[in-house]
Amino acid sequence: MMKKNKILEFSVLFMLFSSLLGIFSSMYLIFNGMSLFIEFELISLNSSMYTLIFYIDWMSCMFLFIVSTISCVVIFYSKSYMHGEINLNRFIILILLFVMSMILMIFSLNLISILLGWDGLGLVSYCLVIYYQNVKSFNSGMLTVLSNRIGDVMLLMSISWMINMGSWNFMMYMYISELNNYLFIIIIMVVLAAMTKSAQIPFSAWLPAAMAAPTPVSSLVHSSTLVTAGVYLLIRFSEMLQMSMFKEFLLLMSSLTMLMAGMSANFEFDLKKIIALSTLSQLGLMMSILCLGFSNMAFFHLGTHAMFKALLFMCAGMVIHNLNNNQDIRYMGSLGYYMPLVSINFNISNLALCGIPFMAGFYSKDLILEMVLFSNMNMLIFFFFFFSTGLTVSYTVRLLYFSMISEIKLNKIFNLLDKDLIMVKSMIVLLFMSVFSGSLLNWLIMPFFYMIYLKLFFKLMVFIFIGGGILMGVMISMMNFISKLSLINKFFFFSGNMWFISNISVYGFNMMILNLSFKFDKILDMGFLEELGGLNLYNNFISFSKINYYFYFNSIKLFIFFFFMFYLFMLLF
């Protein structure tokens, strides 16, 4: 046990050191307007040269700070959450491998080293999703890893395609992408890879399924590592994305993802799935604003979102821990009376998610929505952005109603305690970040303050939709009495099942391939190939061996006669 504790303490200290290094390096690079480009030549073959490239700028260092801070807090949180776990040593090492893969991807400018980090994320995430070994975890892990393999294949194809360029350093070719058809194909592949990793439509089914992992893993995955890798990759490719016509397609898909996730979360009852769908909605928001050309704002929202989403999962983990592993919000209620410290953290992270003024989420979400109003977009995109913001407030109010306001439905309330100091201390760190990180990042990373001049009605538009979201959340919470009506019941079912995307990707596409493989097995393996291949040869050999046996043991005259004929045949020919 001492060895496990030493590994855990070393991991916490290492992540703390990495976090401090990231924030101080980022501030130094911002204030001096610098970036470092480190290049090592490894292999040179004919016209292609493989170099290991590390690009250290303010964005990569700031992302290092975000990832390391959350990882440090999550590993410390796991000390109590995974207490009594036999394989705690393995769990901590897996999380360290996961974070190291993300850090490799953050600092890489070479597509091959990006693929190493990208593939490391996919492989280790599979190991973490199936950590609790049961049928549901195995199914979720396979769905996760196979969805992510599509993105891996796209990156591999873009790597093979970039052999035509002579180098895999995509920044060198960033500004000539409009003149080159090769790079247009590469940006299509990179966008598809980012869509799989960030779970945009039609690859959204794996994100709620990945909730089978332990809650500390969910906290890490949904805040700053796995799902944000796609957004970060597109931020690096943002110049090429803006020059291609593919950005309109990505804008539509990400806006639909934002709307679908918001609607699904309003009709979901699993606590972790609600927060996972909330992550999916925010990823759609980041992708959408990135397609409009505001890469700094996408990174700004990525940073603020990571802080309060990690806190939200940690609070959910502690609530589930105290409710004897029950995740259904209909069994919760009055948690504010029995778990006040957790409830404070839970409420503040939810308010930051809604974009309540002067919380972390307000600085990024309000800026994004005002820039959408300022950008002269069409009514469809306007509707997607603002209605999805209202849906975010709606499912947050519904979650707070079921967990805080309504009466508790459990028979026993004596196990509801929040005196676990390790968990509470780790949550308080992220509590401060959820309140202050928005303003701090706003001062640090914005090169200039945006002066957005809008009419009073447009300025108040955000608050109008927040108010509408509050009313919608109260209505949906009280809606049980009309759920017997067939049309509304069908709408609930359609919205709660993520517009049937999970059914299509799991049962539709997979069942078609399974049926095809069954037919191939029946017709070829058990049919023609069996008759003309192994079984036919086996039967022929048996018949020949029977004849041979008959020659040897049944008729000595026959054997001598055939031997003489064979010898005569050999002499003649």
Structure overview:
With 573 residues, the chain is mainly alpha-helical. It folds into three domains: 1-224, no CATH class; 245-481, no CATH class; 504-572. It contains 23 helices and two strands. The chain has helices spanning 2-32, 58-81, 88-107, 111-129, 135-161, 181-197, 206-209, 215-221, 228-236, 238-243, 247-265, 271-291, 295-322, 335-338, 340-354, 360-374, 379-405, 421-445, 456-459, 461-477, 486-496, 501-553, 556-572; strands spanning 36-45, 48-56. The protein has a two-stranded antiparallel ribbon with strand order 1-2. Helix 2 runs antiparallel to helix 18 (421-445), helix 5 (135-161) runs antiparallel to helix 6 and helix 16 (360-374) packs parallel to helix 18. The model has no long low-confidence stretch (mean pLDDT 81).
For this entry, give a set of tags:
single chain; 573 residues; mainly alpha; 3 domains; two-stranded antiparallel sheet; 23 helices; globular
